[in-house]
Amino acid sequence: MDEDTPDWATIEGAVCLSHIVDTSLRESVGNATDRSCTICGRAAVGSEPAFAVAWDIVVEPFMRAFWREYERPEAAPTPSDLEDTTWAVGYLAQYAFDVSHIEAIGSLISDAIAVDEVSTYGAAISADGLSHEWDDFESTVKHESRFVFMGSDGPSARVQDFLRKLGELASDGSGLVSHLLPEDPLYRARTVAWDWSMTAKLPTSATELGPAPADRAAANRMSPAGIPMFYGAEDEATALNEVGAFSIAQHAVVGAFYPTRPLRMLDLRTASIFASPFDEQHLELRILLLFLEEFQQAISRPIVPDGRQHIDYVPTQVVAEFFRRAVNPPLDGIVFASAHTGNSNCVIFATDQNVANNGAVEAERSVGSILPDADYPEVLLTLDPSSVVLRRLVHRVDHEALGRFDGSRWSISEGNRYSLSRE
After folding, report:
1. Cα separations (Å) of 358 from 9, 186, 355, 381?
2. How much is the average pLDDT of 27-44?
3. pLDDT (tens digit, 9 = 90+) per residue, 272-283?
4. 3-class SS string, the chain
5. For 318-328, what is the mean pLDDT?
6. pLDDT by residue (tens digit) across 2-23?
7. pLDDT given at position 309
């Protein structure tokens, strides 16, 4: 879209500065110049100072942002890449204006745009480029080159380039680095085969509930077979869903681990981060966050254990290893959303040698046997033994049908969900 050529009609009147809630947009329009508002009908009384700004001043930066996020309809390769202009304006307006006036403002701006539909494909602010690179990265490490990333061209170069871009996420300036504090519990669960005669054999220690030893570590979302890592969740229900979703086990033991120091985490959840579409100084961050919404879905989606899960795990395993070994300052782990509950999961770059029972650590510290410069693995997580509980996993199917077959085709609804609860 040629931003030098306006693609909108003039809007008469002015709007209250107080109706503009986006900081960047408000800064771009400057000070109040008018004494009446066409949206709320307010008019200055007597010598009351100006409180509004002319619409033509507001619309210019709004439209610059709009045509960065969308393109003309002829740019859409398929009808599915088109969006109604009114909806698109409303989507952007929700960031810009007071929610109580969005409908009126959205209608006013939409009427000023010459086209009824806009394209979501080909826009300047789009995650399309990084999404295509992720797709290419997935294909490359699954089917072309997995272990050797050397060379200036070909599959290795594509992998190196993509990882370099991801590495920028791990900087403190990205807004994506957070810390897990010593008071933040991480729940870890393990399915067990249990009956009343087996209580004495249930896992109760950090060694039993923590990561498996290297020679028994199975492949997982972020770690290949033989490389143990600590997988945990912010709450007990999420931990139980993660281990029980594709298991026929009827019981699980779950306990709370606590960091021994603040852990530096790459937080791939973007809910707490916002890059204004009107902030022209941080457009690259907005593109990155749009991509992260898709990337988050890719790493959170359930992987059904159908024999191909080892292949499907490969891309996220490579990414996790890169973040574990190749960024500086080093990371201690990654936070991502659970596909089962939407709450937070995390992977800590910790092995079975980096976990211990809380009481055992305190005892060793009390006799001075744990020294800061001791030549053994750092204890990163400690289990609170009093938090360990045995839960019964209950696999339920809702009674309402998900779909019905009428003799010739299926009719599918959202009525039925496979769910897992705890007792």
Report:
1. 67, 14, 9, 8
2. 95
3. 566 788 988 877
4. CCCCCCCECCCCCEEEHHHECCHHHHHHHCCCCECECCCCCCECCCCCCCCEEEHHHHHHHHHHHHHHHCECHHHCCCHHHEEEHHHHHHHHHHHHECHHHHHHHHHHHHHHECCCEEECCCCCCCCHHHHHHHHHHHHHHHHCCCCCCCCCCHHHHHHHHHHHHHHHHHCHHHCCEEEECCCCCEEEEEEECCCHHHHHHCCCCHHHHCCCCHHHCCCCCCCCCCCCCEEEECCHHHHHHHHHCCCCCCEEEEEEEEECCCEEEEECCCCCCCCCCCCCCCHHHHHHHHHHHHHHHHHHCCCCCCCCHHHHHHHHHHHHHHHHHCCCCCCCEEEEECCCCCCEEEEECCCHHHEEEHHHHHHHHHCCCCCCCCCCCCCCEEECHHHCEEEEEEEEECCCCCEEECCCCEEECCCCCEEEEEC
5. 82
6. 444 447 888 999 999 999 999 9
7. 47
Whether residue 364 is predicted with pLDDT greater than 60 in this model: the reply is no
- Residue carrying structure tokens 């929700």: 94
